[in-house]
């Protein structure tokens, strides 16, 4: 399996029937930037869109291409001196575009004009306070919620995450309101970090304060969930069979429930009602998918399971996310590259055998600091490849997917050696359809990160959101 992903190489060749067949190698080498999905039903005329929306009972999407939002999480903070860019030219200049990328951020050079580096954004609900140790759990749990998570291994409580606020507002316009991804192959339950539930560390998205949305890390399962199983040309029928099977199972469940309801006490009936709510949500999703008509069937082979290479794992999930945006299958996503506190080693990638978390507590040992700096740069390199794919993929208006996206990249820890949560390492990529001004390094001077989320929600067309998390207002100058 190839591991060099420095450039995108198509390998589609006409077969005897005149069609193109994509190998798995071509899929791994940049599916999002190269695949032209036939007709893209989501990219129909305004008249057809109005008809479809009316049938589905959904609100019409605004004119023009849709905006997309994604939130990408890195673990264990960053080496601060190596992360922040340097001002170029006159140090007193107010020109935010006059800066030099640091060595850590240097891989972003190819997409520099599409990225904003943000300084001075904080998560004040992540430091210890009276709760003591557990900064990694709090970093994860606070990142997209802006709230102080409850310290308990069983009684979890966070807040609704910003991706789910967006999904509630615009999710009816796509087949999937949101997409949750991860590269953590092993997940745990119970207590994980100094008495905090593992739910905080292994999830970014929260649909309610007590309900995390588990992300999926297996590329095959993600792809088949979005587009159906089988080879290109077979997926529509496969998806229809799966929906019919689901409907049959649901009918059986509902009939079985009717027979048992009268034998339950009040408490069990409440539990049963909660269960039935989930069943009805499945029914609603099936009906919604059927009303939207034909599901996109990308002309690429279904990926295999989890690759052995961490870099390939990240890139193939980024490929699928690109395709999900390109086909308007979803407009909102979160991607946990690794949970905070991850102790993954980088032997294959960088020749670093020590665990990431162990190294992050470097106590100013210069050799450890250098190794963490290389890991920080490696993660940026993976992100830069994703942005390059988005920029190379044309949208319906002739611009790129990156132009019509807002991609947040960063972590809930700043300096992992000291477990700080102010001046977080953060990037915002994309132009938001022309509503952002990228290509800059902007110091925001100690504002809640939740202020940024409010500003993103505004640009996504989410109305009536006065506050979020610990916000104190909108973030200006973005």
**Structure classification:** alpha/beta
| Low-confidence residue ranges | 1-62
Q: Residue-averaged pLDDT, rounded?
A: 83
- Alpha carbon gyration radius: 23 Å
Which labels suit this protein?
seven-stranded mixed sheet; disordered N terminus; 2 domains; alpha/beta; 478 residues; two-stranded antiparallel ribbon; globular; 13% strand; Alkaline Phosphatase, subunit A; 36% helix; 15 helices
Short précis:
With 478 residues, the protein is α/β, with parallel strands linked by helices. Helix content is 36%, strand content 13%. It is built from 15 helices and 15 strands.
Describe what you observe in this structure.
By secondary structure, the chain is α/β, with parallel strands linked by helices. The chain has two domains: 30-226 and 296-342 and 355-459, Alkaline Phosphatase, subunit A; 229-294. 36% of the residues lie in helices and 13% in strands. The protein has helices at residues 24-28, 31-34, 46-56, 80-83, 135-143, 162-170, 198-201, 219-227, 235-260, 266-291, 310-326, 347-350, 356-360, 366-392, 449-459, and strands spanning 13-14, 20-21, 68-73, 86-87, 99-100, 115-122, 179-182, 191-193, 196-197, 206-208, 211-212, 332-336, 405-410, 426-429, 440-448. The strands form five sheets. A seven-stranded mixed beta sheet has the order 7-12-3-13-14-6-15, with helices on both faces. Strands 1-2 form a two-stranded antiparallel ribbon. Strand 8 (191-193) and strand 9 (196-197) form a beta hairpin. Helix 9 (235-260) runs antiparallel to helix 10 (266-291) and helix 11 (310-326) packs parallel to helix 14 (366-392). The chain is globular.
């Amino acid at each position: 399996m190839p591991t060099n992903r420095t450039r995108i190489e198509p390998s589609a060749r006409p077969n005897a029937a005149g069609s193109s067949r994509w190998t798995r190698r071509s899929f791994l080498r940049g599916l999002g930037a190269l695949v032209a999905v036939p007709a893209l039903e989501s990219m129909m005329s305004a008249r057809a869109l109005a008809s479809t929306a009316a049938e589905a009972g959904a609100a019409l999407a605004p004119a023009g291409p849709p905006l997309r939002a994604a939130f990408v999480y890195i673990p264990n903070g960053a080496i601060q001196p190596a992360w922040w860019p340097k001002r170029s030219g006159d140090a007193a200049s107010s020109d935010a575009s006059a800066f030099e990328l640091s060595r850590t951020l240097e891989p972003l050079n190819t997409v520099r004009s599409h990225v904003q580096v943000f300084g001075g954004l904080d998560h004040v609900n992540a430091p210890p306070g009276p709760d003591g140790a557990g900064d990694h759990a709090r970093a994860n749990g606070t990142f997209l919620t802006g709230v102080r998570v409850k310290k308990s291994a069983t009684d979890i409580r966070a807040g609704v995450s910003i991706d789910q606020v967006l999904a509630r507002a615009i999710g009816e316009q796509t087949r999937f309101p949101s997409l949750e991804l991860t590269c953590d192959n092993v997940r745990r339950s119970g207590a994980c970090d100094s008495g905090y539930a593992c739910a905080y560390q292994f999830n970014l998205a929260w649909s309610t304060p007590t309900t995390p949305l588990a992300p999926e890390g297996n590329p095959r399962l993600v792809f088949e969930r979005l587009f159906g199983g089988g080879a290109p040309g077979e997926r529509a029928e496969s998806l229809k069979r799966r929906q019919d099977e689901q409907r049959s199972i649901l009918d059986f469940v509902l009939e079985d429930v009717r027979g048992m309801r009268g034998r339950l006490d009040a408490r069990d009936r409440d539990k049963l009602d909660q269960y039935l709510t989930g069943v009805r949500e499945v029914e609603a999703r099936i009906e919604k998918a059927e009303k939207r008509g034909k599901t996109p069937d990308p002309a690429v082979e279904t990926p295999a399971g989890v690759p052995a290479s961490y870099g390939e794992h990240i890139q193939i999930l980024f490929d699928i996310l690109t395709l999900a945006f390109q086909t308007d299958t979803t407009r909102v996503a979160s991607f946990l590259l690794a949970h905070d506190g991850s102790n993954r080693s980088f032997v294959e990638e960088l020749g670093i055998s020590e665990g990431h978390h162990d190294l992050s507590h470097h106590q100013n040992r210069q050799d450890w600091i250098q190794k963490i700096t290389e890991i920080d740069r490696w993660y940026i390199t993976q992100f830069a490849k994703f942005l390059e794919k988005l920029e190379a993929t044309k949208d319906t208006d002739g611009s790129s997917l990156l132009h019509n996206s807002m991609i947040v990249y960063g972590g809930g820890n700043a300096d992992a050696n000291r477990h700080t949560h102010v001046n977080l390492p953060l990037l915002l990529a994309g132009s938001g359809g022309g509503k952002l001004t990228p290509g800059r390094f902007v110091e925001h001077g100690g504002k809640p990160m939740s202020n940024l989320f409010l500003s993103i929600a505004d640009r996504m067309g989410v109305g009536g959101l006065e506050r979020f998390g610990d916000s104190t207002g909108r973030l200006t100058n973005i």
